[in-house]
Amino acid sequence: MKFTLSWLRDHLDTAATLDEITERLTLIGLEVETVNNPAETLADFEVAEIVEAKPHPEADRLQVCQVKTSAGMTQVVCGAPNARAGLKGILAREGATIPANGLVLGKAKIRGVESRGMMCSGAELNISDDHDGIIELPAGAEVGAPAADILGLNDPVIEIAITPNRPDCLGVRGIARDLAAAGLGTLKEDKITPVAIQGDCPISLAVGSGCGVFTGRVIRNVKNGASPDWLQARLKAIGLRPINTLVDITNYISFDRGRPLHVYDLARVTGNMAARAGQDGETFIALDDEEYTVTPEDCVIADEASVLGLGGIMGGKASGCEATTQDVFIESAWFDPTYIALSGRRHGIESDARYRFERGVDPASVDTGLALASAMIVELCGGEASASVTAGAIPDLRFKAQFDPRLVLKRTGVDLDEARMRDILTALGFEVSQDWQIVAPSWRPDITGVVDLVEEIIRIHGLDNVPSTPLPIISPVARPILTDPQRKTRQSRRSLAARGLVEAVTWSFVSETYATAFGGDPALRLANPISADLSHMRPSLLPGLLAAVARNTDRGFADFGLFEVGTVFSGPQPGEQTLSAAAVRTGDRVPRDWRQTRAAFDSFDAKADCLAVLSSLGVDAGSLRSSQDVPSYYHPGQSGVLYRDPRQPLAYFGTLHPAVAAELGLPDGLVLCEVFPLNLPAAKARKGQTKPVLQMSNLQAVHRDFAFEVADTVAVEEIIRAAKGADKSLIDGVHVFDVFVGQGVQDGHKSIAIEVTLQPRQATLTDAEIEAVSEKIIDAVAKATAARLRR
């Protein structure tokens, strides 16, 4: 929201300086974004008179001018065709910065002739498009006078940020009201002189969906043309282009009062008018020269022949006012903010009217806006005004409540006198009875509860006046407040990042092709997808990660891994979602290097990723079992599942199925894993802070190797589990170091070699004790897997 300082003072009687005003605006929640003071920009520019102008000796189009300034005579080389003796214009002194291009002037020689300063055109000062000649001022302009004063550019422009809940401050009067309530002046009385009425209005009105009240009047015999200089200057200052007096008046009132209006050329209106729902097939060409097709969900302004515009958003070009307009109809209406927001979004129209109506224009301003527009039109354009006509009724949307002033102290800790609180609310326009019955003003749709009243009191009182109070020291330190899912999410993310994977954040939606390939339920299709490629809720994190891998490999990245932790969906109902941590690796495990052979990522890397996550969640790898009962998108011979209970898998790992990779256009050999942290029970709360006893031994560990021949259908995990269980008090670890198939091994069998670590804790093991444990290991493995020891 932009406005000038003089515009603000039209509504606010104050002696405050510009700095005081901008500081107070920010303190009461109307944050000042920029202040553009033309007087400061043009500080090095002044009125000067050309006393003598002679041709340049070395250039036909240049003149050497002797210029009278506040500091005496100076010489300026000028190329303007209108430069002549006796002309008064604007001189940029040495050191001045030209607004149009940022050029800093210094003493220069132009074709061998010294020039000190520059006589400026309107384009060079950014005040017009005229660059054909220098500015010509009236003969009475005083030499040495500041350029900003003589050009009428000494009015600072303030721009503030308006939050969506403050539509009342989209008008200068609303801003002035807040400043007056904050003690920075007095709000001036709102005087609108009613126009003389001459006859009834020839048009009747009607309202329908989306429009609560529609009022207006006809003014005949107006003379339209360029608006007065003061009105044009204000519109230009805030970035609006003056068009003609009638249109400029409506734009002015929109920014002055936050009240959008529209003026129609009566000669282009057929019969009566209505604010009604649009009809299928109706079209109109708007003021932006675009053609729009309306829908029954739109509220349109229409006459008996056609649509004249989208109500509260943009009028039509066919009924717009031009220089030849003689009779006009002024529209002032209140539109439902929801209708305006949806219609504006549907048609992609951005306008000042939409910006205000969708945030909530004051319903009571329907009449005052019409009265002000009528008075300005009659004053500036002449004409005879008819009586006004109205359809519908002004809705009363004001918040009403019983307020307890003690709530201010209770909610904020600020102890204010009741008289002070009453004065603040009254100054803001609230009705406050003796027993604290509160009625909010019609221009404050954001007031919806008593806590909003507390906020208003403290906002105007000033947050800078609220004493700073340190928080109490709480001892002992509070316990962690993360929930079990939050803790598992963090742990999963940290463990995968520690594995060298890069975190990715992908859409929660995938295409139908990906959803089908990864076992998605058809019920997960979205009713209103944001695009055709994001039509289903994701059944797995892998589709998004695989798409990200594909985009990166297409751009030349070969060896990397991505992971994501997020929600996946097995169905559309509550409870059919779970947390998943997934990772994808592609390329080689190590970069190209002459010292080592390259090796591609494989399913064991994926398994290690899964075990890292599960370990961070407190799962002992020895307690896990595995099988090859994996989803169909995993390679059946290179994948597995980790679980404690077969009904609740904890992780899947392996490589992507070649058929799925071909269907989705992905490279072969992609390594995948998925972990489901919520399938683990919640961690039990510890009764105390004492850590378990650290079990360590200072005795030498003993290593023994065993080679077992087993059927090739036996999982290595069964051998490891059996060996570990042979003597849990002594066996500290089991490691597979060789797998062999070939000569010396029966067909359909394989040789598995393991290293068993024995860790004594009480005394060094004797040979007999080692042999006894070895026999236990051999017997346990043979019993569990029907293996025989290879000698």
Spans of 5+ residues with little confidence (pLDDT < 50)?
none
Shape: elongated
* Main sheet makeup: 7 strands, mixed
Percent of residues in β-strands: 25-35%
Number of discrete helical segments = 20
- Average predicted confidence as pLDDT: 92
Strand order of the largest sheet: 28-31-32-36-35-34-33
Q: Roughly what percent helix?
A: 25-40%
Structural class of the secondary elements?
alpha+beta
Q: Give the N-terminus to C-terminus distance in angstroms.
A: 90 Å
Oligomeric state: single chain
Query: Measured on Cα atoms, how large is the radius of gyration?
Result: 41 Å
How many individual β-strands?
40
What is this structure's SSE topology?
Layout: E1 2-4, H1 5-11, E2 12-13, H2 18-27, E3 32-36, H3 38-41, E4 45-56, E5 59-69, E6 72-78, E7 88-92, E8 108-110, E9 113-115, E10 118-119, H4 147-150, E11 157-160, H5 172-181, E12 186-187, E13 205-207, E14 211-220, H6 229-237, H7 245-257, E15 262-265, E16 273-277, E17 283-285, E18 291-293, E19 299-302, E20 307-310, E21 314-315, E22 328-335, H8 337-347, H9 352-357, H10 365-381, E23 384-385, E24 389-392, E25 400-402, H11 406-412, H12 418-427, E26 431-432, E27 437-439, H13 450-461, H14 484-498, E28 502-503, E29 509-510, H15 512-517, E30 536-537, H16 542-554, E31 560-569, E32 577-586, H17 603-616, E33 625-627, E34 634-645, E35 648-656, H18 658-664, E36 671-675, E37 702-711, H19 716-724, E38 731-740, E39 749-758, H20 767-785, E40 788-789
Parallel strand pairs: 13-16, 28-31
Antiparallel strand pairs: 1-11, 2-12, 3-11, 4-5, 4-7, 5-6, 7-10, 8-9, 14-22, 14-23, 14-24, 15-22, 16-19, 17-18, 19-20, 20-21, 25-27, 26-27, 29-30, 31-32, 32-36, 33-34, 34-35, 35-36, 37-39, 37-40, 38-39
